[in-house]
Design a protein that fits this description.
single chain, 299 residues, Rossmann fold, 6-phosphogluconate dehydrogenase C-terminal fold, 2 domains, 12 helices, globular
Length: 299
């Protein structure tokens, strides 16, 4: 399907993308580029990439598809480096967890070539980082949200969508603005809360004792606090307005629950817990069950 793809950032997200396309026999040659020579060497050793690009020009030349899989704060600089060498027919996409800022960066960096940039966001991940965390089935049955621009051709959007389908993903579309509002609530806020809770526990004078007795509930709730701090710093700042809105809403909820606890209102607390339990059960049944790999025939 692709003769050559280039990946800027060969860690979990970019590396898993490359491995998935290789397993699907959808790509002939993968070039990698990034900040860390050690990570690039490891990616080549693991068979994630076929070659380490010696320059941006080499990575971009005669390339069918470019994936920017670096922290969102680096997007503008990477796209600006790509722009002088970007040839007609090459499609660029990204894997950033925010979209409005990425679109603004792309317009600034690419100018008229922004038509060749199709914003994307794979909804998958692990708490591990780097090339060693990459797995070929990371995207199987998982959503990938595309946020096409008015300038994009249907053919370029379809090409990016098909690349992700070859990885086993299910394609959805949102506007950049809607994307950022949605993920502030269901992804960015949970990460903020997990980091804050673990940081709070770690800063207590008896932290060692607390961690000694933390079990599966704590581990499950805080799993995502093992993710890249640099990446989530960038995401938090990039989606600051929407994230602050969701955080304020959550603080109101916490204040209300605290008031119920303070007065010992058991029935009201149970009602909050029961509503949350019902909502989670419904989510599991109607969303996760509907998106098992064998159900992925449509968008």
């Amino acid at each position: 399907m692709f003769k050559k793809i280039a990946i800027f950032g060969v860690g979990l997200i970019g590396g898993s993308f490359a491995l998935a396309l290789k397993n699907a026999e959808a790509v002939e040659r993968v070039l990698g580029l990034g900040r860390s020579t050690a990570s690039l060497a490891r990616a080549r050793e693991l068979g994630i990439i076929d070659e380490i690009a010696t320059s941006v020009a080499e990575a971009v030349r005669d390339t069918d598809l470019i994936l920017v899989a670096a922290p969102v704060a680096q997007t503008e600089a990477i796209l600006a480096a790509i722009a002088p060498y970007l040839q007609p027919g090459t499609v660029v996409t990204d894997a950033g967890s925010t979209k409005s800022d990425v679109v603004a960066a792309a317009r600034k960096a690419l100018g008229v070539k922004v038509a060749q940039f199709v914003p994307g966001h794979p909804i998958a991940g692990r708490e591990l980082n780097g090339p060693d965390a990459a797995i070929a089935d990371l995207y199987v049955g998982k959503k990938v949200v595309l946020a096409p621009l008015a300038e994009n051709t249907p053919q370029d959007v379809a090409r990016v969508a098909e690349a992700w389908r070859q990885c086993g993903a299910i394609i959805h579309q949102l506007t950049p603005e809607k994307h950022d509002c949605v993920f502030a609530a269901v992804s960015h806020l949970p990460h903020l809360l997990a980091y804050a809770l673990v940081d709070d526990i770690a800063n207590k004078p008896h932290a060692d004792l607390l961690f000694q007795y933390a079990a599966s509930g704590f581990r499950d709730f805080t799993r995502i606090a093992g993710s890249s701090p640099e990446m989530w710093r960038d995401i938090s700042l990039a989606n600051q307005t929407a994230l602050l809105h969701e955080l304020d809403s959550y603080l109101v909820q916490l204040t209300q629950v605290r008031a119920l606890l303070a007065v010992g209102d058991g029935p009201a607390l149970e009602a909050v817990y029961a509503n949350a339990q019902r909502a989670r059960h419904n989510w599991i049944k109607t969303i996760e069950a509907a998106e098992k790999p064998e159900k992925q025939g449509g968008d």
